[in-house]
Amino acid sequence: MTGDQYSDGELLARLPRQPELMGVLYERHAQAVFRYLARRAGPPAAEDLVSEVFIAALSASSRVIAHDSGSALPWLYGIALNVLRRHLRGTRPAHEAATDPGMDWDAVDARLDAWAERGRLRAALAGLSESDRELLLLVAWEGLTPTEAAAALDITQTVARSRLHRARTRAMKALRSQPGRGHNVVTTLHARRDAS
Amino acid sequence: MSPLDDLLDSAGRVPDFSREGMRSGLENLDAAIARASAEQTVARRKAARRWWGGWRGVTVIGATAGIAVAAVVAATVIRPVSSTPPKAAPQAGPAPRVTAKAKPKPAADPGAAVALSSMSYTIDTTTSGTTAATVLDAAATAIGKQAGTAQEPNVDWSKPYFHTVQVATCNGGTTTYNVWQTRTDDGVGQATGGACGGPGAGGMYPITAGFADFYGLGNQPLTQSQVDQLPTDPDKLWPLLEGFDGDSLNSDTASPHSNASTLFQSIWNLITSEPLSPAFSKALLEDAAKIPGVTVEGKYTDSLGRTGTTLHIGIWTMAIDTATGQILSMTQNAIPGVPICGGKVTAHSLCQPGGSSTMVYVSAQPVASVPKEVAAMIAYGQAHEPKVSMAPVPSPRL
Asked: What is the ipTM of this complex?
């Protein structure tokens, strides 16, 4: 495909007039977008949703500029969150969707193989606002820098850094107040997974 | 690592995107890209705004996107306003719809309105024997005869308004668009006849600066002042035009959206959308003659009694009168196998069944004054329409 030679920033600049370049972004970032979706809605839903993200990006691509880091991913994650919310609104009972518009806990739970762990993760993240949690997870799960995560959530870097600090502090405090010896349990889980 | 990081690490482990998912996702995307391609060329350009007769679909995107892209589906702002704006500043919110009696009189004589609504044209493809370059050079020579001084600006705003009358034909009917604009790109569009769709039919709508409001040549957006800096010597202009596409004009000639066709169509758009000086229009047409892949299709005749020669490249068919240099029409042809707008018929004229649509350029001229209602609406729009902010346009190497 032509366009491979372009950076993300150059691709974004050209997209409004050359929509076919979205194919290059897909080749580059479909895996990362899949993982983003799979972490929040489970792999089966993510398989179907990846192309929706890029198609939505196509209609939103006029005059987007890449993050200073040069990556289109913060932008794509921002779109993925919207696609995810829409998907979860349509698939879950209204009350669940209303309380947690961007996360399917069942899908997250399925990856933690002990009931205790499920409760602990939920407890750790439950005290966070949706946007704080998303910020924390973009950094922890997607590996974005705080400034990239700020771009994905359309907030300033300064706000992102202070919210991230707040989110981590709150989550760790909530975790400490949970029953169970966290570190040991996790270590045990890791050992079990490695053995299986 | 902290317990929190450990826990997140466990919860964040997911499998890879499957090969099958990757492939079928790409198929879905390709279909969407094909649809977007069919619309994108016009959608970006100022002329597209006129095509819709002044009602506007504005996609508001923050510079850094993210949550701002919450409008996953483009937000369409359609705001009809009264043609008799109140003296006191009204509150924000939907303004009343234009009433029939408030419509300004078209600048043309009353009989012309009838002729425009039944606009038709034919293309006789049996004639040939000339090349596109010859046709364009002849048109350039004709328009060059109107050239004034060498010092005149490329974009001639010696009169305060620019008035265009265009008729879109599609789906067996027509929509007539009157657009009046100012140097600052504030303006008013009026659409009559609804064959090409749009809630604008019959109404007047303000157009304000900031909505994709730049000129473009090839893939290069240009501000008005940048257009003014372009050379009127076609030999100096040509390397710039070639460069604007980023890639060689010969790199993708098989594509219906080739670089060459994009450049050619953008020249057509620029000349028909803005008050360009004859000298600059001449240079653009002479350089258009150098664009590879343009073929002569036949002889154009329309119901206004005008004749011209049609040229074809990519999805575009254009008509020009070689005797005067006047551009007569532009047709966007449906691409076989590509459903227009996903098979859905929408208000967008390009989404009409059949997909092909033609804009006939009736007139385009600088004018010293506009009808009172139009002036009032321009003022209303300047005062009350939201200004859509734009990311900076990348500067070309001029």
From this structure: 0.80
